[in-house]
Amino acid sequence: NWQKDIFGTTTRIEAYQSIKDKYATRLINIETEKNINNKTSLTAAYKYRNQPLNFNFYLLQSDFKKYNWENSDLSNQEFSTLSLVINHKKFGSIQGEWNLINNFTFFNNITPELDLNRKFSAEVFQLNNRIDYFKARMDQRFDFGKFTLANNIQFQKVNQKGNPQGTIDDPIALNVPKWLIRSTFMLTSSIFNKALFFQSGLTLVYFTDYFADQYNPLIAEFVTQNLTSIGNYPRVDFFFNAKIQSSRVFIKLENVSAPVKHLINIDAPYNYYSSPFVPYRDFSVRFGLIWNFFD
Fold this sequence. Notes:
two-stranded antiparallel ribbon, globular, 21 strands, 295 residues, single chain
């Protein structure tokens, strides 16, 4: 590791190389940071990673005939990342990131469409083409007296060389939602002569529909699939946190948007999922109490 301040710009360099050739890892990380003024800073970075896969890709043995493989000829995955972050103390931060991925390796769902949710077949697949993954994110927090609005908005786009629709020999490898939004509006205050401090508000979580990876319990891995999409459902949670001397209590009403949705339209579909064929929790209440007897 190396770090140096030159004309108000901080530069950090980190490098790593494994001694052994087999399953070797290489890392190069270069980062520069500059304070433009007392409120704004700029950070630019380049990172290169060449790393082996987890061992499930190389070898798997089980009692199921289709879940036995040995892939000793797989190449390391390569990730090259360029990033730029602009941070402002008042208006938050904006981050852009561009990833170039070579030898991307994944578990590919090869289950026939007629057998979906009845059978589950997967195989190891290493992509020959490059993947370009772009991500832009904005984080901001505004305080209005006792009220706070915190927003996290992220845009993502994936370009895969070759057929954009994917083929049997060149399937779509990396699926991500185009937009992710998380917004929290809360009230922070004290009552009873400041004996009780509390925070209460609503959190909205939303992401556009996409072909999410499906969990395979046999190999304990997520498998890439391109047939079943999830998302496009705004989930709203209500929370209340309080502190009374050495005690803390929280109440959370999860997915309050579900009963509201079905109250408005009794025939509304239950279309909220955490992963394909795995429904997200219905409306639920969580309660917790922490009581410290000694400070």
